[in-house]
Structures
1.
Amino acid sequence: MTLTPEVLTGQTRSHLTDVDGCLMHRDVMGDFLNLKAAAKSAGFELAVASSFRDFERQQLIWNLKFEGQRAVLDDNGQALDISTFTDREKILAILRWSALPGGSRHHWGTDLDIYAKNLLPEGVSLQLEPWEYTQGHQTPFADWLTDNLTAFGFYRPYQKDLGGVAVEPWHISHRETAQQYLTALTPALLSTVIASSAVAGREAVLAELNWIYSQYITNVSEA
Ligand SMILES: [Zn+2]
């Protein structure tokens, strides 16, 4: 597979395949299905909350947050008043929970947000908040994942707070495939993509790109 700018930044679906209604990378499907089967044997109905997300979608999320039309949350899950923030401060706040368009691991199809459907209490919807996985209904599943992910080629890039993206216990990554993408995604490539996009705060993003890249894209836990 040639890792073109389009493949790296969510602007094509050529590298993807449909697995039970979820788009993911072709090279991830086998390990994913094995992980799902093992989870089932252990009593968990593994479900995908988010798989591939394209550039347009990530740009929409980003722009709504940047323009104050969608909540930007602090570390405690409380909405921030960003109306007085500088562009740089807005970018920093958004990046804690949302990736830069073009810089999301969900563009690659190698990364998935998962949960156990059968652990979700009736009438409760998944929030994708850390407490659900650390001290809530998803905790038994999260613990099982910790013990079993590696055997299926997956790991959690956001398992620790490294000062970049917040801890996301639900986010798993197919290590071998994702590593190739991370290596190929350079600041120069990202810069070209952002420069020709409609990303809100584009000029400030471009000015801060090297820092964003090292703090939020390559700054992930090792497998
Ligand atoms: Zn995710």
2.
Amino acid sequence: MIEKQHIIDRFISYVTVDTESDPTSENTPSTAKQWDLANKLADELKQIGMQEVTIDENAYIMATLPSNVGYEVPVIGFVSHFDTSPDFTGANVKPQIIENYNGKDIILNKEKDIVLSPDYFEDLLLYKGKTLITTDGTTLLGADDKAGITEIVSAMEYLINHPEIKHGKIRIGFTPDEEIGRGAHKFDVKKFGADWAYTMDGSQIGELEYENFNAAGAVVTVKGKIVHPGYAKGKMINSMYIATDYINSLPRLETPEHTEDREGFFHLYTIKGSVDETKLQYIIRDHDKIHFEARKEMMQKLADELNEQFEMEVVTVEIKDQYFNMREKIEPVMHIVKIAKKAMEQAGIQSIIKPIRGGTDGSQLSFMGLPCPNIFAGGHNFHGRYEYVPVESMQKATEVIVNIAKLVALPETSFKEEE
Ligand SMILES: [Zn+2]
């Protein structure tokens, strides 16, 4: 349907603009360079014929494709982010195109001996015979999430060029700063005005997600007592030993490296210690709300026990919720997942429904009143030099968007929960 070269050209025009976000900045967008692509996108949307194209003071872009049917159809939305991860540089991206991939090692960079190999990244073998876009080994690619933007813009352009395809009103939204967890923060859900939306921000072709972690961060502070080591008997309290006890009291196998699927964890990611004070930083993750609450309680209880043992407050725990599992917001409107699944079937794609072991902007948007499952954008190995995207996956994602638009506008599509 959508011409391959057209997708490639559009994608490359986006990834060659550096839009790395910065978690240390308080501004939105967190980096001024994100404006470069934001302005370009707003222009392009006007140029392909989108209506009500707006770009606000924080670089959030919204646009409308008006309905072309004479009856009431729910307003749907599609959302992506244009920033790239600060984990790896996104400056001077030099995409390479591998046509008719042969299933063997891909030399990303001969000089630096950087190889993208199916021995290590087995997913590559799914794409034998396809056209892959890779990096030159020195930057990330930015398919996360410029593939999503490519697909949304291409689908809107296709619908504009094919007025015979019936659809309701469609809103699209492009955000800055998703990679630093702030993509949804300043998203004006009311102005967007959709009944529901989809983020095009998943990975492998077929992915469809409406469950993510409940997430919290915890800082454990242990206070010691510093005394001259030569005269410390019965006086010194070494905070590092108490911190070690604390660490070892949490279930050792409930960590990221020992868990998968719907198993939650405690993740200790920083220790900073001296005799006088030790700080531990954790993240807590669990799909199940009850287990999530229990994990937070356990962290507090361990502190209470140590304080009792020392008969003073040596350990304090500060826990902050970060985001929640969108499942509870999606389940009452399950038809929006079924429509996406059906749209994939129509494109010949087997949907892969699985819980996300992380968060998405869609989870935040769902709690802000815009139910928002996540659909594949097609890329793999995000946030690093081995990132790649098969062009055919971007074509299919574009087709899925068009199919969703069609399905929602079918008079016989029921928007009530059947079961
Ligand atoms: Zn993303």
